């Protein structure tokens, strides 16, 4: 019954396999029920019984010859995580004190690295603030990968509809909407933990970096490519930041060609890891690694305090 208990989402990922033996059996049973309701003639009954006997015989023979492959497919379906289910399920750190302490140390090292980049110090303060606010989270996760900081999570109970209404305020407001109708983050709405799909994304990136065994120089070039994000709106020195980003990619490419001459795909693999990093949300990083210790504190205020002492 694994096919009946699988995901009921729409789309190709949630459709049942119409070629499975179980589906054919159920289909034949439903056809037989329809035939009985139509009350066929005795001659038609004999014909239908002969057809069902031959069909069951063919199904029995096909089941005996492909039982191993069918059970393997069922096992694979059971192990595959449903995307809609993982987005609803939530998780938190199993050892928050230990992990948050390690993440805080990495954040301090990351901001120190940013401060020591000469090209960054030449930018106006407005551009510096914009780059730090939008780049601290991916830079932090990149630092976690460099320092080999791993973490374990545990699944939390999904809040009920009543809990969502109560945490959203009076009048039956949604927990993800404030009183002015503006969308609220899950952190400000009081929802515990983060989505398991977000946790899986962070862990997948860390594993990717560790499998590639990225060197110190490669991490430095990747940090430069992340820091000088020319896609942000409101940058005063946009063209200069674009050139810095291109230089970071070019330096990374030249380093890879020089050190890893036999691996022609390494630069592409590093770019794939970089794309995975850009998909990680800053609010998720803040809620997962810092909220368990410092609470619902605005991370921008923390960054300003650490970076500029303001």
Terminal-residue CA separation: 61 Å
One letter per element, helices H and strands E, the order comes to HHHHEHHHEHEHHHHHHH
Q: Say what the CATH topology of the largest domain is.
A: Retinoid X Receptor
Looking at the structure, what is the overall shape?
globular
Number of domains: 2
CATH architecture type of the largest domain: Orthogonal Bundle
Per DSSP E runs of 2 or more residues, the count of β-strands stands at 3
Domain NR LBD: 68-310
Keywords: Cytoplasm, DNA-binding, Metal-binding, Nucleus, Receptor, Repressor, Transcription, Transcription regulation, Zinc, Zinc-finger
InterPro entries: NHR-like_dom_sf, NR0B1/2, Nucl_hrmn_rcpt_lig-bd, Nuclear_hrmn_rcpt
GO molecular function, one term: DNA binding
Topology, element by element:
Layout: H1 21-37, H2 42-65, H3 67-79, H4 83-88, E1 90-93, H5 96-115, H6 118-121, H7 125-146, E2 153-156, H8 161-168, E3 194-195, H9 196-212, H10 216-227, H11 238-259, H12 266-278, H13 282-289, H14 291-294, H15 299-307
Helix pairs in contact: 1-2, 5-7, 7-9, 7-10, 7-13, 9-12, 10-11
For the structure shown, list the relevant keywords.
15 helices; 2 domains; disordered N terminus; Retinoid X Receptor; 3-stranded antiparallel beta sheet; globular; mainly alpha; 310 residues
What does this structure look like?
The structure is a single chain. The chain is 64% helix and 3% strand. It is globular and about 55 Å long. The longest helix has 24 residues, at 42-65. The chain folds into two domains: 12-80, no CATH class; 90-156 and 194-307, Retinoid X Receptor (Orthogonal Bundle), CATH 1.10.565. α7 packs across α13 (282-289) and α9 (196-212) runs antiparallel to α12 (266-278). It has 15 helices and three strands. The protein has a three-stranded antiparallel beta sheet. The model is unreliable at 1-37, 53-84 and 169-189 (pLDDT under 50). The chain is mostly helical. This is NR LBD domain-containing protein.
């Amino acid at each position: 019954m694994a096919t009946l208990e699988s995901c009921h989402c729409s789309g190709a990922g949630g459709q049942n396999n119409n070629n499975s033996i179980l589906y054919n059996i159920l289909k034949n049973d439903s056809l037989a029920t329809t035939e009985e309701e139509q009350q066929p003639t005795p001659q038609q009954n004999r014909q239908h019984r002969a057809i069902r006997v031959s069909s069951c015989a063919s199904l029995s023979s096909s089941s005996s010859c492909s039982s191993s492959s069918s059970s393997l497919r069922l096992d694979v379906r059971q192990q595959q995580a449903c995307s809609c289910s993982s987005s609803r399920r939530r998780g938190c750190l199993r050892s928050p004190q230990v992990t948050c302490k390690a993440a805080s140390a990495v954040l301090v090292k990351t901001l120190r690295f940013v401060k020591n980049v000469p090209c960054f110090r030449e930018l106006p303060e407005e551009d510096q603030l914009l780059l730090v606010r939008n780049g601290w989270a991916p830079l932090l996760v990149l630092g976690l990968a460099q320092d080999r900081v791993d973490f374990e999570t545990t699944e939390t109970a999904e809040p009920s509809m009543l809990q969502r209404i109560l945490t959203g305020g009076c009048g039956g407001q949604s927990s993800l909407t404030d009183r002015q109708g503006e969308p609220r983050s899950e952190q400000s709405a009081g929802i515990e933990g983060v989505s398991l799909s977000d946790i899986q994304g962070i862990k997948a990136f860390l594993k990717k970096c560790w499998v590639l065994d990225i060197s110190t120089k490669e991490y430095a070039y990747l940090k430069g490519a992340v820091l000088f994000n020319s896609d942000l709106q409101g940058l005063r020195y946009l063209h200069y930041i674009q050139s810095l980003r291109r230089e970071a990619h070019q330096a990374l490419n030249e380093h890879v060609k020089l050190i890893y001459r036999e691996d022609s795909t390494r630069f592409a693999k590093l770019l794939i890891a970089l794309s995975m990093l850009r998909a990680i949300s800053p609010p998720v990083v803040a809620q997962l690694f810092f909220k368990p210790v410092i609470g619902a504190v605005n991370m921008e205020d923390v960054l300003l305090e650490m970076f500029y002492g303001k």
